[in-house]
Amino acid sequence: MSQIPADLRYTRSHEWMRTMPDGTVEIGITDHAQQSLGDLVFVEVPEAGRKLTAGDACAVVESVKAASDVYSPLTGEVVAGNPGLATKPELINKDPYGEGWIMRLKPSGGAAAESFDAAAYEAVVAAGG
Amino acid sequence: MGKRTALYDLHLAAGARMVDFGGWDMPVGYGSQIEEHHAVRRDAGMFDVSHMCAVDLRGAGVRPLLLRLLANDVDRLTAPGKALYSCMLRPDGGVIDDLIACYLDEKWFRLVVNAGTADKDLAWIKEHAKQIGVAVVPRRDLAIIAVQGPNARAKAMPLLPEGAREAAGRLGSFFGTSCDEWFVSRTGYTGEDGFEIALPAEAATEFWNGLATAGVACCGLGARDTLRLEAGMNLYGNDMDETVTPLESGLAWTVALEGTRDFIGKAALEKQRAGGPARKLTGLLLLERGVLRSHQKVFSGAGAGEVTSGTYSPTLERSIGFARLPAAADGTVEVDIRGKRSPARLVKPPFVRNGKPKIEI
């Protein structure tokens, strides 16, 4: 069973969002996503300053099995990509909601992807999404 | 729902992720694929490979049958228990399957064939066997467990039936020994020492659990794939199939063209060899970040080709693969990885053997 923390928001494409005290949003991939991918071996994170529109492919997570795009759930500007993932992609496997975060985004208030609370996301996963 | 091996419930209980492989529900991994891989390179791991099909061929005509059906030469098998890797070819030289043939006695050979090709293999073999009165008996009553790694034999040995233990301990590489319905061979698909053990399906659970207690790691098809790729071993369906010959698949060393023996596909291979095969299968080492995957396009100075198998190598911590390229391709090539061209170097497999890198990074 995968972990789905109650205090985060989720997307259909298995990203999670955590709103930080300063209004920026931390984004990563869910425990379910990392379990499906298996051992991650490369992660490409976006550079600070990059402008993203909701739905843009903003990062690549590559496991032994497959490469997969990560999509920005929000419109805004990248504040930081997680620098630790360049040498330790396995942080996403070990701690997907903590040390394995992928980027921090400053939302511009533009378009956002459909998002779910933990219970609704659990249903998405259970339905095979 | 796919077919299930005798160990299916055990895999589920161990938390395996199951996938379809050649019509079978098989464990792709039990947790970290990389840890499973390292377990085999450094200690011992076990694989349920019961989806592969053991086929007993019995009758006085079995050797002549295999001399005709196989591209490799079973006349090299003179000592009982000796095994041989070979392709089975169509008349045009296309590869029907790759298999292991083991010589037990003059009236009994055992083949082990791939799961996804077992039905067509059996049909092909039976068609030729009936002409010379050889019985073809698929042994779906057997489970097959591969125990691989530097400590694999030592850990497996005490769990073998008493009657097989001593003979198993003396087995040379590519030899097998039988005891009742158990068959133990010193073969594998990982580049490490170890056994492949065919045993009655009803004995499989106890044997598997015994190995687990002895500290042998459960390993899935995912680790099996990274291990065999590092070991430079082809996978049927990825690296060769009916549309290519062994000469275009890095398997010329398995084809015995010399002499007067006439095997199916020989004429086509002789013709191809005379003209020089247009394509070859080569090893690739990716020089940048990223992972080679099958079907990625490859661009060489001699023309384009394609990655047939690719993965991340846990031992080398780089991406490796096989590609089918024009025969003249050499040096460095470019691979289209998700729209970006990345440089890769042609290398001669194996990449890793017995825990040690075999190529320069």
Describe the protein's architecture and organization:
The complex is a heterodimer of chains A (129) and B (361). With 129 residues, chain A is α+β, with helices and mostly antiparallel strands. Chain A has a single domain (10-109), classed as RNA polymerase II/Efflux pump adaptor protein, barrel-sandwich hybrid domain (OB fold (Dihydrolipoamide Acetyltransferase, E2P)), CATH 2.40.50. Chain A contains three helices and ten strands. Chain A has helices at 31-37, 91-94, 118-126; strands spanning 9-11, 15-19, 25-29, 40-44, 51-52, 57-63, 67-71, 74-81, 103-112, 115-116. In chain A, the strands form two sheets. Chain A has a seven-stranded antiparallel sheet. In chain A, strands 4-6-7 form a three-stranded antiparallel sheet, with no helix packed on it. In chain A, a hairpin with a 3-residue loop joins β1 (9-11) and β2. The radius of gyration of chain A is 13 Å and the shape is globular. Chain B has a six-stranded mixed sheet. Chain B is α+β, with helices and mostly antiparallel strands. Classes of the chains: A alpha+beta (129), B alpha+beta (361). Chain A binds chain B through residues 38-39, 41-42, 44, 60, 62, 64-67, 93, and chain B through 29, 32-34, 222, 226, 289-291, 293, 311-312, 314, 338.
